Amino acid sequence: MIDDDKPRDEAVEKELAGVPEELLEKDAPDGDESSLDQALNSLRGDLEQAQQDVLYARAEVQNVRRRMEKDIQDARAYAATGFARDVLSVWDNLSRAIDAIPAELHDDPRLKALVTGIEATQRELEKVFAQQGITRIASKGLPLDPNQHQAMLEVPSADAEPGTIVQEMQSGWMIKDRLLRPAMVGVAKKLD
Known about the structure:
Distance between the termini: 98 Å
Largest sheet: 3 strands, antiparallel
CATH architecture of the largest domain: Roll
CATH topology of the largest domain: Nucleotide Exchange Factor Grpe, Chain A, domain 2
CATH class of the largest domain: Mainly Beta
Strand content: 15-25%
Helix content: 40-55%
Low-confidence stretches: none
Number of strands: 6
Shape: elongated
Mean pLDDT: 85
Order of helices and strands: HHHHHEEEEEE
Structural class: alpha+beta
Radius of gyration: 37 Å
CATH superfamily of the largest domain: Head domain of nucleotide exchange factor GrpE
């Protein structure tokens, strides 16, 4: 053992902190190189393991940082999602109002201002949607895409291929590259 009566220098203490006790003993034979080699190899193995652990920790920190940055970008890009879903009902009501007015009354002087106002409001809403990256999903005449369309009913049709959308009950919308609301559609089926 090391003589406890002699005070050691603090720097030496720090260096010796990781060295096994058997190497610090006075009575270890000087000529026993195999035990020294074994202890040295053990320390090298510990060092390599510690270096590997540091690399893994750095990689994990980098991955966490990347995920956090992506989450922040997504939060910024899709912050308006809830609000946009709520405003879609306004769009639906404006569309229903315009569709409910018969074509011959569009030019009626008594209703012209009302029709023009509703159409202008709908165009302004479309403009705001476009600024926020909200786009309408195309549906009528296209094949059913379960990622964007929700089939509500099947319509027998001789004109359209089975699986083709022939009717749109409610428009579908995307916000950037994410689905905001699926289009509710009627799909053609083969005549019996």
